[in-house]
Specification:
Length: 312
Amino acid sequence: MKCLVLGGGGFIGINLCERLLSEGHSIRVFERPRLLVGEKETDSSVLSFQKSVEWVEGDFTNPTDLDGAIADCDVIFHLICTTLPKSSNENPVYDIETNLTSTVKLLEKARAQRVKKIVFISSGGTVYGIPQRIPIPESHPTDPICSYGITKLSIEKYLHLYHYLYGLDYCILRVSNPYGEHQRAASTQGAVAVFLHQAMNRKPIEIWGDGNVIRDYIYIGDVVDALSKAVSHSGVPRTFNIGSGLGHSLNELIGTIESLMGYTVERVYKEGRAVDVPETVLDISNARSFLSWEPRISFREGLFKTMNWLKK
């Protein structure tokens, strides 16, 4: 198929593109101009597959830039998000305008150009808010405590609306906390890559709160397995939790890193953040039943793979 990957030069996007290419699909990547060849901060791994895909630069908030990108594509993988959970509350108007409004414009263009399906990366860590029970099923109440989660949830609702009104097919993956190869250690999002980078350079690791916040970490190879399966999935349900189904605290994450490194790392505990829910662990039984998907890489094995990639 002809696949458009919005955000194909990012962490999830690079891994997805590599998988889609291995499966014989034709890929068009839509990315911000700063990720073009020659930019200082470009991930070197982007260069390795750039020649194998059609690379289109543009601004996601500019509908004109999306026109050519969408043309003749069968499936759109929507991986773009312009905000982070911790920053979205600072400017919710920007979050709405750049993510929600831009996505609705995308849906308008997708139905006009007869795109067959949209696969959307939502957030298993923020759309539910503070959990009422663990693990969290897709039927759990959705009460986000950050604009990021509200925007993700709103996009999910618009995908359902466009399917109901126009027959535009979709699949939503509520991904927990992905980590693995190609994750930027310099980024402010992604505890695994950031902590590993600090530990490898024997620098202190900063932790918001007491380190007992629990998250569901999922290896990127398992995430792209789910993305691949989402393309061929049809019917209901169309929304799936994608996680490991297991929870690990930040303290446990650091402890495992220390075990892999063979030495201890200095920890600096800072005041907790209101945006951080105390625990997130996803119920992935629907993905097992309807997508025939389940995670294959354990937490420790995934950390080991990520560590070796960062060393290279």
